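We were asked to recover a plausible sequence for a given structure. The inputs and outputs are reproduced exactly as logged, with field labels preserved.

PROBLEM: sequence recovery
POSITIONS: 210
GIVEN STRUCTURE:
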C-alpha cells in the first residue's frame, strides 16, 4: 500500500470518528433521564430516612452518590460566575478553583432543594421534543394538594444528558447563586481569589424566601 493511499485511509477513518463523536446524542429522552435521576434519588432518601435524620454527612454522601454523576458543573460554574467567568475578570486557574470549590457545595444545594420534596409524589409534565441542546423538563411535586414545579435545564454532553441548572417554583437557582457570588465579590472588595475562597451558595436561603 503506497503512502498516499495510507494517508487517505487514515484521514477517512479519523474523519468518521470525529463526525461520529460530533453528532453523538444521548440515548435517553430528556424526560426519561430526569425520571431516572428523580426516582433514584427519592427512593434512596425515603429508604434511608431514619439513618439520615440529623446526619448531614450521610445526606451529603447519599446525594453525591445519586446526583453527582448527572451534574454538569462546568456549565453551572459559567452560569454562576456570570461576567466574572470571562478573561477580563478571572484567569483559567481561578475559574478552575471556583469550579472545584463550588462542586463541593453544589451537590449539597441540589440535594437540599430536592429533599424538601422527597416525601411527595410527582407528575412529569408533558414534554415536547425539540432540537435544543438545553431542553427543560419539569416535575410537579404534590405537597399536600399544592403543586410545586421543579424544572431541570439539561446539557447535551454528547453521550448523556446532564443537569446544568434547576428552577424551583419559578426561582432560578443558577441566577440566584450568581447574585450571591456577585455580592461575595463586592464584600471582598473585588478580590476574585478571596471571593472564590469565601463563596458559599445557599439554596435554602433562596427557596425559603418564597
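RECOVERED SEQUENCE:
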Amino acid at each position: 500500500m503506497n503512502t498516499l493511499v495510507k494517508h487517505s485511509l487514515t484521514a477517512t477513518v479519523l474523519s468518521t470518528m470525529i463526525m461520529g463523536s460530533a453528532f453523538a446524542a444521548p440515548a435517553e429522552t430528556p424526560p426519561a433521564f430526569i425520571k431516572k435521576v428523580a426516582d433514584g434519588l427519592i427512593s434512596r432518601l425515603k429508604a434511608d430516612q431514619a439513618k439520615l435524620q440529623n446526619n448531614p454527612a450521610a445526606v451529603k454522601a447519599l446525594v453525591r452518590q445519586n446526583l453527582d454523576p448527572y451534574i454538569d458543573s462546568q456549565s453551572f460554574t459559567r452560569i454562576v460566575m456570570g461576567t466574572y467567568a470571562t478573561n477580563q475578570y478571572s484567569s483559567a486557574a481561578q475559574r478552575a478553583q471556583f469550579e472545584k470549590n463550588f462542586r463541593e457545595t453544589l451537590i449539597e444545594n441540589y440535594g437540599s432543594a430536592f429533599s424538601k420534596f422527597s416525601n411527595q409524589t410527582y407528575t412529569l409534565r408533558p414534554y415536547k421534543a425539540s432540537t435544543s441542546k438545553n431542553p427543560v423538563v419539569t416535575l410537579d411535586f404534590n405537597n399536600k394538594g399544592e403543586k410545586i414545579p421543579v424544572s431541570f435545564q439539561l446539557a447535551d454532553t454528547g453521550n448523556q444528558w446532564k443537569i446544568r441548572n434547576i428552577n424551583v417554583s419559578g426561582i432560578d437557582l443558577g441566577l440566584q447563586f450568581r447574585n450571591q457570588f456577585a455580592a461575595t465579590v463586592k464584600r471582598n472588595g473585588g478580590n476574585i481569589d478571596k471571593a472564590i475562597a469565601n463563596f458559599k451558595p445557599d439554596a435554602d436561603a433562596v427557596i425559603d424566601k418564597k
